[in-house]
Amino acid sequence: MMASSYNAKEEDGHHSGAASHGGPAVAKSKKPDNTAFKQQRLLAWQPILTAGTVLPAFFVIGIFFLPIGIGLFVTSNNIKEFEIDYTGVDLDSPCYSCAKNFSWNSTTPCVCTVDFTLEQPFESNVYMYYGLSNFYQNHRRYVKSRDDSQLYGDPSSLKEPSKECEPYRTSDGLPIAPCGAIANSLFNDTLDLYHIESNGTVNVIPLVNRGIAWWTDKHVKFRNPGGNDNNLTVAFQDTAKPVNWRKPVYELDPTDLENNGFVNEDFIVWMRTAALPTFRKLYRIIHKKSSTTPTLPSGRYVLNITYNYPVLSFDGRKRMILSTISWMGGKNPFLGIAYITVGSICFLLGVVLLIIHHKYDNRNNSADIPS
């Protein structure tokens, strides 16, 4: 009778008898419920790895990855790049005096000129980047120091910025627009490019500042308050410019009134923080004019720099990069090298395992033959 009264409910922690009729309480069982999930009785795939499945997998991966890696690597190497460091650390640098004598209180900006030569012409569109080193945009407090509601054009956030913007939240009793450490450290060097022809003629290279920001940032994340881009002076009334800025946000681009305020593309590009301390950001685009002539022919060039952005205080470096792009983006050989490495390792392992399998499989087969 005792054995027949046992059932699955007792195993599951459900008790009957005296406890259910007001009798003495029975301690609840600590055993897991008698279910397929808790008792690990669910069906599971348990593959048996054999030479017939492992060896083809290694060879397929190797044969598949190697051509892709070679293609990516060759494509990356076909991208042309030219880089100039204009930090001004060395005594013979044209920007040395600007870097050493920099002052935030100076009303006259320092201008330096860097001469360089392009040995090979640049075809198609050319993208001009500015690069910074030892600049940690990924610092936790730096990344949080912004007010997305304010950047979206919310009037209440414009007058009462988020506390995350401290200590760049207010200035002289007025709310800062845009607030925060990211906006306060906006890159503001001005770069102008000239081509010197063989006869000495100086040609200005047109630099386009439209289309450098992500479409989603330009049209979704950033908006001017009031939705009126033509009267930004009124929209930003009773606000203060960031501490390190030389002019307010509604005067960032004096040549294009629609490229001002929070929708200024240079500002939007800067606000997308970088993940690594050495990074580059798109500054300008040089569009190709004719299919018969290169965008930047080989020869002498002059880069005029209005030196407004100090980096020596944190041992940083500044550089200008000219680059073409391909279907995979800018120059980056890492992806191709990664594919080639993985494909080579898999193919090599497949060959080694095939030799081992062939050697020891024959030995096992011969050992099974009776004498």
Question: What are the key terms here?
Answer:
16% strand, disordered N terminus, 29% helix, 371 residues, 4-stranded antiparallel beta sheet, 11 helices, alpha+beta, flat
What does this protein structure show overall?
This protein is 29% helix and 16% strand. The protein is built from eleven helices and ten strands. The chain is flat. It has helices at 8-11, 51-77, 96-100, 140-144, 148-151, 155-159, 181-184, 215-221, 232-235, 265-271, 334-368, and strands at residues 81-85, 110-118, 126-133, 170-171, 174-175, 190-196, 202-204, 279-286, 299-307, 317-323. The strands form three sheets. Strands 1-10-3-8 form a four-stranded antiparallel beta sheet. It has a four-stranded antiparallel beta sheet with strand order 2-9-6-7, with no helix packed on it. With 371 residues, the protein is an alpha+beta fold.
Identify the quaternary structure here: single chain
Major sheet summary line: 4 strands, antiparallel
SSE topology string: HHEHEEHHHEEHEEHHHEEEH
If you compute it from the alpha carbons, what radius of gyration comes out, rounded to the nearest whole angstrom? 33 Å
Mean pLDDT: 88
- Structural class from helices and strands? alpha+beta
Question: Can you give the helix content as a percent range?
Answer: 25-40%
* Shape type: flat
Number of helices: 11
Number of strands: 10
- Which blocks of ≥5 consecutive residues have pLDDT under 50? 1-14, 16-20
Percent strand equals 15-25%
